[in-house]
Amino acid sequence: MIRFITDFADQGDILPVVATVAAVMVWREWRRGASVWLGTVILTLALMLVLKIMGLYYAVFMQAPVFSPSGHVASACLVYGSLLIMMGREAFIGLPSLTMLPLMAVAAVMAYTRLVLHAHSVSEVVTGAMIGSIAAVVLGFKCGPVPKALWLYLLPAVVGSAFLFHGWHLGAEVAIRNLVLSEGSSVSHFVYKIFV
């Protein structure tokens, strides 16, 4: 069950969901939502990539343990959390802090799965949750009010896409590690040769 839940936040599942949301927003002519959606998602995923690469380089050069923020937690908070914020925005109009409850539930569940699977440390899932949650809040409120008719198309499309691509794995984490560690070891060997 843990693997089943965590697979909803793998890049092989998240990216098709992101594309589906953007396509439905454009199709239903909500261009503001689509541009804010895509812009926020791209910037957040790029930030996560940079942090993962920096953590790997730090580990190589400092001979320290690898620090790799959880992309699963960040992606789940960003995608599913922001959709929940947008859905509950009107319901909690008088108490905007309550819109954070569904987001915190997404973060807690996904963080728990990553910890149980020993894929990340507590600090790595907290970092992923913070980045994904900040992006989700920005996204949830910057999109503006969601046209009510949009949810009739968006919800089935998101659920369908999430289940259709469930279990797909892009292997992004492994590819990043292999690239950085192979390049990092040759760079560290070069630096060692210069100074020794």
Structural account:
This protein has 196 residues and is mainly alpha-helical. Helix content is 77%, strand content 0%. The chain has helices at residues 2-6, 11-27, 31-62, 71-88, 100-116, 122-142, 148-164, 172-195. Helix 2 (11-27) packs antiparallel against helix 3 and helix 3 runs antiparallel to helix 6 (122-142). The protein is globular, with a radius of gyration of 18 Å. Residues 188-196 have low confidence and may be disordered.
* Sheet with most strands: none
Strand content: under 5%
Helix content: over 70%
Low-pLDDT segments, ≥5 res: 188-196
Q: In sequence order, what are the helices and strands, one letter per element?
A: HHHHHHHH
**Average pLDDT for all residues:** 86
Number of helices: 8
* Molecular shape: globular
What's the number of extended β-strand segments? 0
Could you give a short description of this structure?
This protein has 196 residues and is mainly α.
Question: What keywords describe this structure?
Answer:
single chain, mainly alpha, 196 residues, 77% helix
Please write out the topology.
Elements: H1 2-6, H2 11-27, H3 31-62, H4 71-88, H5 100-116, H6 122-142, H7 148-164, H8 172-195
